[in-house]
Amino acid sequence: MPDPVETSLAESIGSQLLEGALGEASGIALGSILESAGLDPSGMGEVNAKLDKILAELEAIKTELDKLVVDLDEKLGQLSYDVAIKPIQKLVDTNVTLGKYFTALTEPGADINGLKADIATLMDADYLAGVETWHNTLCGLTGQTSVLNAWSVAVAAKATPFFGFAESQRIETQWAFFDSQQAMTVAYLIEHYNANKSAQTDSSIVLDTLRTWQQNRVTQLQMLRGMTRQYDDFPILGDDGKATTVRTPLSFLPQCTLLWHRPEGNWLMLLTGGEMSPLQVTYKSNPYFRGEPGPGDRRTPNAPAMTGMTGWDMTDVDIAVEFLNTCMPFAITNDSDRPLEALLSRGFLIDPKTPNFRVWTIDRGLTQYSSNYLDGNNHSIPLWFFVSFTENNDWEHPVVYFNELGFYLLRRDVGSQELANYFHQS
Q1: pLDDT (tens digit, 9 = 90+) per residue, 227-275?
Q2: In the prediction, which pLDDT does 359 show?
Protein backbone atom coordinates (compact mmCIF):
# COMPACT_ATOMS: atom_id res chain seq x y z
CA MET A 1 0.00 0.00 0.00
CA PRO A 2 1.46 3.40 -0.96
CA ASP A 3 2.61 5.72 1.80
CA PRO A 4 -0.50 7.74 2.79
CA VAL A 5 1.61 10.88 3.19
CA GLU A 6 3.31 10.54 -0.20
CA THR A 7 3.49 13.95 -1.91
CA SER A 8 1.45 14.13 -5.12
CA LEU A 9 2.33 16.30 -8.09
CA ALA A 10 -0.75 18.46 -7.48
CA GLU A 11 0.31 18.93 -3.86
CA SER A 12 3.76 20.05 -4.97
CA ILE A 13 2.25 22.54 -7.43
CA GLY A 14 -0.18 23.76 -4.77
CA SER A 15 2.63 24.32 -2.25
CA GLN A 16 4.65 26.36 -4.73
CA LEU A 17 1.64 28.49 -5.68
CA LEU A 18 0.76 29.11 -2.05
CA GLU A 19 4.32 30.10 -1.16
CA GLY A 20 4.38 32.52 -4.08
CA ALA A 21 1.00 34.03 -3.25
CA LEU A 22 2.03 34.60 0.37
CA GLY A 23 5.46 35.97 -0.57
CA GLU A 24 7.23 33.11 1.19
CA ALA A 25 9.00 31.64 -1.84
CA SER A 26 12.73 31.90 -2.31
CA GLY A 27 13.55 33.04 -5.82
CA ILE A 28 11.02 33.17 -8.65
CA ALA A 29 7.90 31.26 -7.65
CA LEU A 30 5.48 29.31 -9.77
CA GLY A 31 2.77 31.85 -10.50
CA SER A 32 5.16 34.75 -11.08
CA ILE A 33 7.26 33.46 -14.00
CA LEU A 34 5.45 35.59 -16.58
CA GLU A 35 5.71 38.66 -14.38
CA SER A 36 9.47 38.12 -13.83
CA ALA A 37 10.43 37.18 -17.39
CA GLY A 38 12.94 39.62 -18.80
CA LEU A 39 13.49 41.28 -15.40
CA ASP A 40 15.49 38.70 -13.44
CA PRO A 41 17.31 36.29 -15.76
CA SER A 42 19.46 34.98 -12.89
CA GLY A 43 16.60 32.98 -11.41
CA MET A 44 15.25 31.52 -14.63
CA GLY A 45 17.53 28.48 -14.65
CA GLU A 46 16.02 27.18 -11.41
CA VAL A 47 12.48 27.88 -12.64
CA ASN A 48 13.24 26.05 -15.89
CA ALA A 49 14.35 22.97 -13.93
CA LYS A 50 11.16 23.05 -11.82
CA LEU A 51 8.99 23.32 -14.93
CA ASP A 52 10.84 20.50 -16.68
CA LYS A 53 10.30 18.24 -13.67
CA ILE A 54 6.58 19.04 -13.45
CA LEU A 55 5.99 18.57 -17.18
CA ALA A 56 7.97 15.31 -17.23
CA GLU A 57 5.87 13.91 -14.37
CA LEU A 58 2.68 14.98 -16.12
CA GLU A 59 3.78 13.22 -19.29
CA ALA A 60 4.58 10.03 -17.36
CA ILE A 61 1.12 10.00 -15.75
CA LYS A 62 -0.51 10.69 -19.12
CA THR A 63 1.33 7.76 -20.72
CA GLU A 64 0.01 5.42 -18.04
CA LEU A 65 -3.51 6.85 -18.29
CA ASP A 66 -3.55 6.52 -22.09
CA LYS A 67 -2.85 2.79 -21.74
CA LEU A 68 -5.77 2.43 -19.34
CA VAL A 69 -8.12 4.37 -21.65
CA VAL A 70 -7.33 1.91 -24.45
CA ASP A 71 -7.92 -1.06 -22.15
CA LEU A 72 -11.21 0.39 -20.88
CA ASP A 73 -12.36 1.69 -24.27
CA GLU A 74 -15.45 -0.52 -24.57
CA LYS A 75 -16.69 0.20 -21.04
CA LEU A 76 -15.98 3.92 -21.33
CA GLY A 77 -17.80 4.04 -24.67
CA GLN A 78 -20.94 2.71 -23.02
CA LEU A 79 -20.81 5.67 -20.61
CA SER A 80 -20.19 8.39 -23.26
CA TYR A 81 -16.93 9.19 -21.49
CA ASP A 82 -15.46 10.82 -24.60
CA VAL A 83 -18.31 13.35 -24.61
CA ALA A 84 -18.14 14.02 -20.86
CA ILE A 85 -14.40 14.69 -20.94
CA LYS A 86 -14.41 17.23 -23.81
CA PRO A 87 -14.60 20.42 -21.68
CA ILE A 88 -11.50 19.54 -19.66
CA GLN A 89 -9.70 17.96 -22.62
CA LYS A 90 -9.61 21.41 -24.18
CA LEU A 91 -8.07 22.78 -20.96
CA VAL A 92 -5.49 19.98 -20.92
CA ASP A 93 -4.54 20.71 -24.53
CA THR A 94 -4.11 24.39 -23.69
CA ASN A 95 -2.02 23.45 -20.64
CA VAL A 96 0.31 21.45 -22.88
CA THR A 97 0.81 24.43 -25.22
CA LEU A 98 1.28 26.82 -22.31
CA GLY A 99 3.85 24.45 -20.83
CA LYS A 100 5.92 24.73 -24.00
CA TYR A 101 5.65 28.52 -24.02
CA PHE A 102 6.59 28.91 -20.35
CA THR A 103 9.52 26.53 -20.73
CA ALA A 104 10.77 28.58 -23.69
CA LEU A 105 10.25 31.74 -21.64
CA THR A 106 12.74 30.52 -19.02
CA GLU A 107 15.48 29.62 -21.51
CA PRO A 108 18.42 31.89 -22.41
CA GLY A 109 17.80 34.17 -25.39
CA ALA A 110 14.02 33.74 -25.23
CA ASP A 111 11.79 36.04 -27.32
CA ILE A 112 10.10 37.42 -24.19
CA ASN A 113 7.63 39.76 -25.91
CA GLY A 114 6.65 37.24 -28.57
CA LEU A 115 6.08 34.46 -26.03
CA LYS A 116 4.07 36.73 -23.75
CA ALA A 117 1.84 37.62 -26.71
CA ASP A 118 1.36 33.92 -27.53
CA ILE A 119 0.46 33.16 -23.91
CA ALA A 120 -2.01 36.06 -23.77
CA THR A 121 -3.78 34.72 -26.86
CA LEU A 122 -4.51 31.44 -25.06
CA MET A 123 -6.09 33.24 -22.10
CA ASP A 124 -9.52 33.34 -23.74
CA ALA A 125 -12.90 33.27 -22.00
CA ASP A 126 -12.99 29.46 -21.89
CA TYR A 127 -9.61 29.22 -20.20
CA LEU A 128 -10.37 32.02 -17.74
CA ALA A 129 -13.40 29.94 -16.65
CA GLY A 130 -11.14 26.91 -16.22
CA VAL A 131 -11.49 26.51 -12.45
CA GLU A 132 -15.27 26.22 -12.77
CA THR A 133 -15.04 23.97 -15.85
CA TRP A 134 -12.72 21.53 -14.08
CA HIS A 135 -15.06 21.28 -11.11
CA ASN A 136 -18.25 20.89 -13.15
CA THR A 137 -16.75 18.21 -15.39
CA LEU A 138 -15.08 16.16 -12.66
CA CYS A 139 -18.15 16.25 -10.39
CA GLY A 140 -20.85 16.08 -13.05
CA LEU A 141 -22.54 19.36 -12.15
CA THR A 142 -24.97 21.28 -14.38
CA GLY A 143 -26.39 18.04 -15.78
CA GLN A 144 -23.07 16.65 -17.01
CA THR A 145 -21.74 13.13 -16.58
CA SER A 146 -19.10 13.08 -13.86
CA VAL A 147 -15.86 11.82 -15.41
CA LEU A 148 -14.76 10.60 -11.97
CA ASN A 149 -17.91 8.52 -11.57
CA ALA A 150 -17.83 7.23 -15.13
CA TRP A 151 -14.22 6.10 -14.79
CA SER A 152 -15.01 4.29 -11.55
CA VAL A 153 -17.95 2.48 -13.15
CA ALA A 154 -15.82 1.44 -16.13
CA VAL A 155 -12.93 0.18 -13.99
CA ALA A 156 -15.27 -1.90 -11.83
CA ALA A 157 -17.18 -3.31 -14.83
CA LYS A 158 -13.94 -4.31 -16.56
CA ALA A 159 -12.67 -6.14 -13.46
CA THR A 160 -15.87 -7.91 -12.43
CA PRO A 161 -16.30 -10.15 -10.47
CA PHE A 162 -13.32 -8.73 -8.61
CA PHE A 163 -12.17 -5.31 -7.43
CA GLY A 164 -8.72 -5.12 -5.86
CA PHE A 165 -5.51 -3.16 -5.54
CA ALA A 166 -4.96 -3.07 -9.32
CA GLU A 167 -8.37 -1.43 -9.79
CA SER A 168 -7.65 1.06 -6.99
CA GLN A 169 -4.46 2.02 -8.80
CA ARG A 170 -6.46 2.65 -11.98
CA ILE A 171 -8.77 4.98 -10.07
CA GLU A 172 -5.78 6.83 -8.64
CA THR A 173 -4.01 7.13 -12.01
CA GLN A 174 -6.95 9.00 -13.51
CA TRP A 175 -7.25 11.22 -10.45
CA ALA A 176 -3.49 11.92 -10.38
CA PHE A 177 -3.60 13.15 -13.98
CA PHE A 178 -6.70 15.33 -13.67
CA ASP A 179 -5.66 16.61 -10.24
CA SER A 180 -2.29 17.70 -11.60
CA GLN A 181 -3.68 19.21 -14.81
CA GLN A 182 -6.29 21.11 -12.80
CA ALA A 183 -3.45 22.45 -10.64
CA MET A 184 -1.58 23.56 -13.78
CA THR A 185 -4.64 25.43 -15.04
CA VAL A 186 -4.75 27.27 -11.72
CA ALA A 187 -1.01 27.98 -11.97
CA TYR A 188 -1.28 29.45 -15.47
CA LEU A 189 -4.30 31.55 -14.47
CA ILE A 190 -2.36 32.96 -11.52
CA GLU A 191 0.54 33.68 -13.89
CA HIS A 192 -1.90 35.66 -16.04
CA TYR A 193 -3.39 37.55 -13.10
CA ASN A 194 -0.01 38.47 -11.63
CA ALA A 195 1.31 39.68 -15.01
CA ASN A 196 -1.76 41.87 -15.61
CA LYS A 197 -2.22 43.53 -12.23
CA SER A 198 -3.08 46.87 -13.74
CA ALA A 199 -6.15 45.34 -15.33
CA GLN A 200 -7.37 43.79 -12.07
CA THR A 201 -10.43 45.28 -10.41
CA ASP A 202 -10.07 42.92 -7.43
CA SER A 203 -6.61 42.80 -5.88
CA SER A 204 -7.40 39.51 -4.14
CA ILE A 205 -8.18 37.58 -7.33
CA VAL A 206 -5.11 35.35 -6.91
CA LEU A 207 -6.05 34.34 -3.36
CA ASP A 208 -9.70 33.88 -4.34
CA THR A 209 -8.67 31.60 -7.20
CA LEU A 210 -6.54 29.52 -4.85
CA ARG A 211 -9.33 29.25 -2.27
CA THR A 212 -11.96 28.26 -4.85
CA TRP A 213 -9.70 25.56 -6.31
CA GLN A 214 -8.81 24.21 -2.86
CA GLN A 215 -12.48 24.05 -1.82
CA ASN A 216 -13.48 22.40 -5.11
CA ARG A 217 -10.73 19.85 -4.69
CA VAL A 218 -12.08 18.68 -1.32
CA THR A 219 -15.48 18.04 -2.94
CA GLN A 220 -13.80 16.14 -5.77
CA LEU A 221 -11.85 13.97 -3.33
CA GLN A 222 -15.08 13.07 -1.57
CA MET A 223 -16.41 11.66 -4.83
CA LEU A 224 -13.52 9.24 -5.31
CA ARG A 225 -14.01 5.57 -4.44
CA GLY A 226 -11.74 2.59 -3.79
CA MET A 227 -8.55 4.57 -3.24
CA THR A 228 -5.35 2.96 -1.95
CA ARG A 229 -4.83 5.86 0.49
CA GLN A 230 -6.96 6.53 3.56
CA TYR A 231 -6.64 10.31 3.42
CA ASP A 232 -5.26 13.22 1.39
CA ASP A 233 -3.15 16.02 2.85
CA PHE A 234 -3.05 19.28 0.94
CA PRO A 235 -1.70 22.81 1.57
CA ILE A 236 -4.39 25.48 1.62
CA LEU A 237 -4.85 29.14 2.43
CA GLY A 238 -6.45 29.25 5.89
CA ASP A 239 -9.11 31.69 7.05
CA ASP A 240 -6.37 33.62 8.86
CA GLY A 241 -4.58 34.20 5.56
CA LYS A 242 -1.77 31.79 6.45
CA ALA A 243 -0.77 28.48 4.92
CA THR A 244 -2.11 25.37 6.61
CA THR A 245 -2.79 21.73 5.72
CA VAL A 246 -6.22 20.18 5.31
CA ARG A 247 -6.68 16.42 5.69
CA THR A 248 -9.53 14.89 3.67
CA PRO A 249 -10.62 11.32 4.50
CA LEU A 250 -10.91 9.11 1.40
CA SER A 251 -13.13 6.16 0.54
CA PHE A 252 -10.52 3.41 0.29
CA LEU A 253 -10.24 -0.32 -0.30
CA PRO A 254 -8.84 -1.98 2.85
CA GLN A 255 -5.22 -3.01 2.59
CA CYS A 256 -4.47 -6.51 1.24
CA THR A 257 -8.12 -7.29 0.43
CA LEU A 258 -9.93 -8.32 -2.73
CA LEU A 259 -13.61 -7.56 -3.26
CA TRP A 260 -15.45 -10.51 -4.77
CA HIS A 261 -18.92 -10.04 -6.24
CA ARG A 262 -21.12 -13.15 -6.37
CA PRO A 263 -24.85 -13.45 -7.16
CA GLU A 264 -25.34 -14.36 -3.49
CA GLY A 265 -23.65 -11.15 -2.32
CA ASN A 266 -20.33 -9.37 -1.99
CA TRP A 267 -17.36 -10.46 0.11
CA LEU A 268 -13.99 -9.03 0.97
CA MET A 269 -11.33 -11.73 0.82
CA LEU A 270 -8.16 -11.55 2.90
CA LEU A 271 -5.05 -13.64 3.57
CA THR A 272 -3.37 -13.65 6.97
CA GLY A 273 -0.36 -15.76 7.90
CA GLY A 274 0.21 -17.97 10.92
CA GLU A 275 0.17 -21.48 12.31
CA MET A 276 -2.83 -23.80 12.27
CA SER A 277 -4.46 -24.15 15.67
CA PRO A 278 -5.06 -27.78 16.73
CA LEU A 279 -8.64 -27.00 17.81
CA GLN A 280 -10.98 -29.11 15.64
CA VAL A 281 -14.30 -29.62 17.43
CA THR A 282 -16.53 -26.72 18.42
CA TYR A 283 -20.13 -25.55 18.60
CA LYS A 284 -21.21 -23.35 15.69
CA SER A 285 -21.82 -20.52 18.16
CA ASN A 286 -18.21 -20.61 19.32
CA PRO A 287 -16.67 -17.16 18.68
CA TYR A 288 -13.52 -18.79 17.35
CA PHE A 289 -15.31 -19.14 14.04
CA ARG A 290 -17.37 -15.97 13.60
CA GLY A 291 -17.11 -12.37 14.66
CA GLU A 292 -14.43 -11.42 17.13
CA PRO A 293 -11.78 -14.13 17.62
CA GLY A 294 -11.92 -15.92 20.94
CA PRO A 295 -9.05 -16.02 23.48
CA GLY A 296 -5.96 -17.63 22.03
CA ASP A 297 -7.44 -17.95 18.56
CA ARG A 298 -4.79 -17.74 15.84
CA ARG A 299 -6.97 -17.57 12.75
CA THR A 300 -8.31 -14.01 12.64
CA PRO A 301 -6.44 -11.77 15.11
CA ASN A 302 -4.43 -10.03 12.37
CA ALA A 303 -7.47 -9.18 10.24
CA PRO A 304 -8.76 -6.17 12.23
CA ALA A 305 -5.25 -4.77 12.56
CA MET A 306 -4.59 -5.16 8.83
CA THR A 307 -7.91 -3.76 7.62
CA GLY A 308 -9.44 -1.77 10.48
CA MET A 309 -12.49 -4.06 10.21
CA THR A 310 -14.02 -6.79 12.34
CA GLY A 311 -16.39 -9.59 11.36
CA TRP A 312 -13.89 -11.76 9.51
CA ASP A 313 -14.58 -15.49 9.21
CA MET A 314 -12.75 -18.56 7.93
CA THR A 315 -13.71 -19.37 4.33
CA ASP A 316 -15.54 -22.66 3.78
CA VAL A 317 -13.75 -25.12 1.54
CA ASP A 318 -16.36 -25.13 -1.23
CA ILE A 319 -16.29 -21.32 -1.37
CA ALA A 320 -12.49 -21.37 -1.31
CA VAL A 321 -12.41 -23.72 -4.29
CA GLU A 322 -14.84 -21.48 -6.18
CA PHE A 323 -12.84 -18.38 -5.27
CA LEU A 324 -9.45 -19.77 -6.30
CA ASN A 325 -10.83 -21.18 -9.56
CA THR A 326 -12.43 -17.80 -10.30
CA CYS A 327 -9.08 -16.11 -9.68
CA MET A 328 -7.47 -18.53 -12.13
CA PRO A 329 -9.28 -21.35 -13.99
CA PHE A 330 -8.31 -24.85 -12.85
CA ALA A 331 -6.30 -23.58 -9.90
CA ILE A 332 -7.83 -26.33 -7.75
CA THR A 333 -8.26 -29.68 -9.50
CA ASN A 334 -8.15 -33.35 -8.63
CA ASP A 335 -4.45 -33.33 -9.32
CA SER A 336 -1.87 -30.68 -8.46
CA ASP A 337 -3.31 -27.48 -6.94
CA ARG A 338 -2.00 -23.97 -7.63
CA PRO A 339 -3.40 -21.65 -4.94
CA LEU A 340 -0.28 -19.45 -4.88
CA GLU A 341 -0.39 -18.83 -8.62
CA ALA A 342 -4.11 -18.07 -8.45
CA LEU A 343 -3.76 -15.55 -5.62
CA LEU A 344 -0.77 -13.84 -7.24
CA SER A 345 -2.81 -13.41 -10.44
CA ARG A 346 -5.26 -11.25 -8.48
CA GLY A 347 -2.66 -9.03 -6.86
CA PHE A 348 -2.27 -10.57 -3.41
CA LEU A 349 1.06 -9.52 -1.94
CA ILE A 350 2.78 -12.87 -1.47
CA ASP A 351 6.39 -13.87 -2.05
CA PRO A 352 6.13 -16.01 -5.22
CA LYS A 353 9.01 -18.12 -3.91
CA THR A 354 7.25 -19.04 -0.65
CA PRO A 355 8.22 -22.68 0.02
CA ASN A 356 5.36 -25.17 0.55
CA PHE A 357 2.78 -22.41 0.18
CA ARG A 358 -0.38 -23.49 2.02
CA VAL A 359 -3.88 -21.99 2.36
CA TRP A 360 -6.07 -23.02 5.31
CA THR A 361 -9.86 -23.26 4.87
CA ILE A 362 -12.60 -25.07 6.79
CA ASP A 363 -15.23 -27.77 6.15
CA ARG A 364 -18.10 -27.39 8.58
CA GLY A 365 -20.66 -29.89 9.77
CA LEU A 366 -19.99 -32.79 7.43
CA THR A 367 -19.97 -35.32 10.24
CA GLN A 368 -22.16 -35.44 13.33
CA TYR A 369 -20.15 -36.35 16.39
CA SER A 370 -21.84 -37.62 19.58
CA SER A 371 -19.87 -37.16 22.74
CA ASN A 372 -20.08 -36.62 26.46
CA TYR A 373 -19.38 -32.93 26.06
CA LEU A 374 -18.84 -30.10 28.55
CA ASP A 375 -22.03 -30.44 30.64
CA GLY A 376 -21.83 -34.22 31.07
CA ASN A 377 -24.58 -34.94 28.56
CA ASN A 378 -24.43 -36.38 25.08
CA HIS A 379 -24.78 -33.87 22.24
CA SER A 380 -24.81 -34.23 18.51
CA ILE A 381 -22.39 -31.59 17.34
CA PRO A 382 -20.62 -30.89 14.04
CA LEU A 383 -17.07 -32.01 13.54
CA TRP A 384 -15.42 -29.24 11.57
CA PHE A 385 -12.44 -30.27 9.50
CA PHE A 386 -9.66 -27.92 8.51
CA VAL A 387 -8.63 -28.22 4.87
CA SER A 388 -5.41 -27.03 3.29
CA PHE A 389 -4.45 -26.37 -0.32
CA THR A 390 -0.73 -26.58 -1.02
CA GLU A 391 1.05 -25.30 -4.11
CA ASN A 392 1.82 -28.11 -6.58
CA ASN A 393 0.32 -30.72 -4.30
CA ASP A 394 -3.04 -32.35 -3.52
CA TRP A 395 -5.33 -30.83 -0.92
CA GLU A 396 -5.33 -32.20 2.60
CA HIS A 397 -8.83 -32.98 3.85
CA PRO A 398 -9.03 -33.27 6.76
CA VAL A 399 -5.81 -31.72 7.97
CA VAL A 400 -3.77 -34.20 9.99
CA TYR A 401 -0.60 -32.24 10.66
CA PHE A 402 -1.11 -29.02 12.61
CA ASN A 403 1.23 -26.25 13.76
CA GLU A 404 2.50 -25.74 10.20
CA LEU A 405 2.94 -22.31 8.67
CA GLY A 406 0.28 -21.26 6.22
CA PHE A 407 -2.18 -18.54 5.23
CA TYR A 408 -5.75 -18.31 6.46
CA LEU A 409 -8.24 -17.43 3.73
CA LEU A 410 -10.76 -15.17 5.44
CA ARG A 411 -13.92 -13.53 4.16
CA ARG A 412 -16.19 -10.74 5.31
CA ASP A 413 -19.70 -9.84 4.17
CA VAL A 414 -20.03 -6.49 2.37
CA GLY A 415 -23.39 -4.74 2.38
CA SER A 416 -24.65 -2.33 -0.26
CA GLN A 417 -23.77 0.75 1.81
CA GLU A 418 -20.18 -0.39 2.29
CA LEU A 419 -19.94 -1.45 -1.36
CA ALA A 420 -20.54 2.18 -2.36
CA ASN A 421 -17.19 3.05 -0.71
CA TYR A 422 -15.29 0.98 -3.27
CA PHE A 423 -16.70 2.02 -6.64
CA HIS A 424 -19.57 3.89 -8.27
CA GLN A 425 -22.31 1.77 -9.79
CA SER A 426 -24.05 2.61 -13.05
Answers
A1: 999 999 999 988 888 889 999 999 999 888 999 998 888 999 998 875 4
A2: 87
